[in-house]
Amino acid sequence: MDGNGRWAKAHHLPRVAGHRAGAQAVRRTVESAIRHGVGWLTLYAFSSENWRRSPGEVLDLTGLLRAYLRSEVRELRSQGVRLRFIGERSRFDGDIVTHLDEAERETAGNTRLNLTLALSYGARAEIATAARTAARLVAEGALRPEDIDESCFGDLLFTAGMPDPDLIIRTSGEQRLSNFLLWQSAYAELLFLDVLWPDFGPEHFAGALAEFAHRERRFGARPGD
Ligand code: IPE
Ligand code: MG
Question: Is residue 114 annotated as a catalytic residue, yes or no?
Fold first, then answer.
């Protein structure tokens, strides 16, 4: 979800106004996902690197997260949404961590839409942590090196038990993954849109699904296989 700052600038507003508008786009996108019957939606809301933004902006972003959790979780729960959070949640303030834990617990029985927010998430850190865990298990004698395969390693990632993404959409015209789901995106279709995240609406969501439907996915196999 990129382009909040540029959206604010284009509207002669402070950056925080862009982040607020971005939160509205999150609400719209969750509704679109439910309407289209998309089962899994993962939103990159805050990267490990975002902690390096100015203290004021970090405060704005964590404040918005807190407000979003307070105001949305009940509604999401009643809509059948199961919430998950991937990333280093312990880096957030204690009250936010409590909200995150509660939201996961309270929605664990829902199945309509699996909504995952990547918060303080970075794929390289995720992979390094999984490697460390595997090494520790081997050292403890709980795992044999020859048993570390793709499936076993995947189970050590934040996304254990979740399907790999089929489609990754990045807004605002940038064409890179920026440390998002690097392991999991091995065969994901990538879609780069020029629209700034706060302007992302139902028409963009529907357009992305239509584009995805046109892609021929072979997962490394020969054409026609
Ligand atoms: C994305 O918008 C929001 C977050 C990273 C939380 P940006 O803040 O990166 O917006 P630009 O890139 O400055 O336009
Ligand atoms: Mg950006």
Answer: no
What structural domains and CATH numbers belong to the chain?
4-120+166-213 (3.40.1180.10)
Pairing state of beta strands 81-86 and 113-121?
parallel
* Whole-angstrom distance, CA of residue 142 vs CA of residue 147: 11
Nearest CA among 26, 142, 127, 126 for reference residue 73: 26
Distance CA 114, CA 128 (A): 25
Cα(205) to centroid(ligand 2), Å: 20
Q: Dump pLDDT digits (tens) for 24-51.
A: 999 999 999 999 999 999 999 999 999 9
Is residue 2 part of the annotated active site? The answer reads yes
Residue 222's pLDDT is 78
Ligand 1 pocket by C-beta < 6 Å: which residues? 1-6, 22, 46, 50, 61, 172, 197
Cβ distance 124 to 50 under 8 Å?
Answer: no
